[in-house]
Structure formats: C-alpha cells, structure tokens
Amino acid sequence: MVTPADRESAAVTEHLWFAAFICVALAAIIAYFRAWWYVLPIILILLLLSFLKPSRHYPLGWVALLLAAIIFYYPTMEPPAKTLPEIKNTSVVGTVASIPRVDEERTRFVLTTDQGNRYHRQYQVVCQFSLPIKKGDKLWLTGSLEPPHQGGNPGEFDYRKYLYHQGVYYLLSVKKADDITKIEPAGGWQGMINSYRDRMLQGTKEYMTSQESAVLRGMLLGDIDDIDPQLYDEFQNTGIVHLFSVSGLHIGFLLLLSSWLTSLLGARRSYRLITGIALLLVYGTLISWPIPVIRASIMGGMGLLAYYSGRPQQMLNSLGIAGLLIIVVDPHALFTISFQLSFLATWGLIYLFPLLRQRIPYSGLAVDALLVPFCAQVAITPAIAYYFNLISPVSILANLLVTYLSGLVVMLGFVALVFVMLAPLAGICLFAAGLLIEMILLATHFCNA
C-alpha cells in the first residue's frame, strides 16, 4: 500500500535535480553579486524546515550543497576591474574562436590567445572592413585594445557586462586590412565544418530569393548578417525574433524529423537512438554550440534514452540536469539572456502546459497546438519586458501564427543540410522552405501593422 509519505518522497525525487539546479544557481548568484547577507537567512530557513520536518526534503543536504557551491563559485565569479587601461598599437596572435560576422563594412569575431592573464585570454575583434576568415583560422593582428562601453541608462544594453559573461574584457579594434595576417587556415575537423557550412549557405542563395535566404540562414544557422534591419525590427516588435536564436525549438524539430525518417525506414530502436544523438552532435558542431542548443541537446539526448529504453521521462529533472551541467562548466551562462529565455520557455512547456491543459475541458490536437506556443511565450514575457522594455500583446498571436510554419521551414532546412551535395533534392527542399518563409513574412507584416 502506498502511503502519503511514499507519495511525497516520490514527488521530491522526481524534482530532485531541478531543486539541485535552483540551489546551485542561487549559489552562483550570491557569489557573483557578493551578496553574503542572503546566505544566513537562507540557511536559517532550511534549518527551520529540518526541525519542522526532520525526515523530509533533506534540508541539511541543501545547506551543504549551497555552501559548497558558493565556495566553488567564489573564485570563478570574481568581478572584473572597474577600469581597464587602453592599449594602443599592440600586436596579438590568436585563433578565431567564433563564427565571424561579416558584412560590407565590418567584421566581428572572438579571438582566443595563449596569454595567461584572464583579461587577455579572449578579445572581441572589430575590423572596420570586410575580412574573409573562418572559425579556426590562426591570425596575427595589430590594433588598439579598449574596454567595451558600459550601459548606464535604464534599459540600455550593457555591452561590457554582456562580453564579461563571455569571458571577454577588451575590444580589439583593427583599422586596416594590412594589420591582419592569416598565419594558418583552419584545418582538420573545423575545416570540414567550415566547408560544409559554406556549401549550405551557397545553396540557399542559389535556390531562394535574397530575403528568403537571409531568413532561412538566420533560422537554421543563427546567421542574421544579411537580414534587412527593417525586417528584423518587425520580427522584434512582434515578439518572434527568437526564431533567429537557434534554440530548443530547433532541436525539438530536428529530433521529430529524425524520429519520423528512421520510423519510415523501419530502423530498430537502437539505430533510431544513435541517429538522433548523432544529428544533435553534428548540428550543434555546425552552429558552434550556443547555450540554448547545449541545454536542449542534453534534454533531448536524455529524452531519447528514456523513450527508447522504456523508462519514464522526468522532464523537469532533465531540465535541472541540463542547467546544472551548463552552469558548473560555465557559471556565467546563468546571467546570459539566451540561457534565461531558453530555460524559461522550456519551463513553460513542462510546468505551465499541463497545468493549463487540465483546466481546459476541450480535447484534441488543435487545443494542444495553440497552447504550446502560448505557454512558452507567457513564460518568457517577464524576461523580455525586463531586458528589452517591451511588452507586446500581439507577440502571442504572432507566435501562434508562425511557430509551426517555422518548424516546417527548419525541418526542410535540415533535410537540405543533409543532402547539400545532392543539388536537386536540396533545391526542392529549399524552394518549399522559401514558400513557407513568404507566409511567415506575411504573418509578420500583418501582426506588425
């Protein structure tokens, strides 16, 4: 016979990893802000719980975890110096660590060096010209180092804080093309990834209009350089600019496509699992593993393992494990907008969706299809309002209109990625994706109006 105590214990275990993530995240926040005055009240509350319910919820364990995490994070979350000196005409050798953003007038990328000083391990390089470089290229540069601009007005984007959470403390400004020399091009695995990515980008330009190509590359690869600024503003105003942030939405559609294709081919369960995880690894590598994709890939991989092994899926625990792995490796990820939006949207689907669904008397796929984007949008609305000073009621309508269209676009884009060397098949997929993108643009114009 199952007792109430057994049910409570099962509920605690079901959410154990999520609670552990909250505890460790709280420790990271305390260490980052040096907010020691919060530690004692939290410990007292947990100890009080241990006396009120001595056999439940393990409060002493949470106290130990909180203190251990604070001690762990304290040296890694050391605040940067308030002022950093400018350094003129310095020469640096390093490797391109990010996918360069290139337009007609500027080139921007992160450069990793071999220097031991934390202020000089990475630079955000800004070139005042177009530069044909790739991730993994080794460069010699001459330029000026200066600290990034710090936002001061309410709602103003704090570029210095943004770069600090990326481990970057200096901008390296390069004025002339003669001040950069490519010492060694990217080779090996990274060179292959670069070539494959370039072939995909070229394919979109061959089979789609320039606007369709720019939107697809933004949705599939996070490459927004060629999107018209006015069109980007429309996506932002209607609250669907997240389509250009490669995230859990993309991973979900990728796994859906993988499951459908392997089922169609009659593959065994083990092969379906291997195929799904392999596609996650290839796609993540292709787009340089942004934080939302890391989170979604961990959850997706755990979900696949649970599904194909016949074990129950504990989505909230999976979210907690993904969050824990990310902030243990990179605690600064907790303070990035991309992590917070991705985490909140997923929490909305896991927690809000079943909560609202059981209160709606109507059944059917149509209700679920409308409720899924609604819950995700509701969950991220407070964060969007805080960071962008923007509350757009029309964003819920816009998301309902474009979420599933964008899913079809992403899946067609994935197929084109796989068959990028088979021009006819890739071309058919890209043409169909272009038609769907036109429908998304119409919906965006309508909502923006």
| Shape field | globular
Return the domain count: 3
Structural class designation:
alpha+beta
User: How would you state the average pLDDT, rounded?
Assistant: 86
User: How widely separated are the two ends?
Assistant: 61 Å
Q: Count the DSSP helices.
A: 16
Strand order of the largest sheet: 1-3-4-6-5
> Which consecutive residue ranges, at least 5 long each, have pLDDT under 50?
none
- The tally of beta strands, per DSSP, is 7
The helix content, as a percent range, equals: 55-70%
> Major beta sheet, specifics?
5 strands, mixed, barrel
Return Rg in Å: 24 Å
- Listing every helix as H and every strand as E from the N terminus to the C terminus, the arrangement reads HHHHEEEEEHEEHHHHHHHHHHH
Sheet-strand content, in percent, reads: 5-15%
Task: Summarize this structure briefly.
With 449 residues, this protein is of the alpha+beta class. The protein has helices spanning 4-14, 16-33, 39-52, 59-76, 159-164, 188-207, 210-221, 229-237, 248-264, 269-286, 291-309, 315-329, 337-357, 365-388, 394-418, 423-448, and strands at residues 87-96, 101-102, 107-112, 122-127, 138-146, 170-174, 180-184. It has three domains: 4-76; 87-185, Nucleic acid-binding proteins (OB fold (Dihydrolipoamide Acetyltransferase, E2P), Beta Barrel), CATH 2.40.50; 197-448, no CATH class.
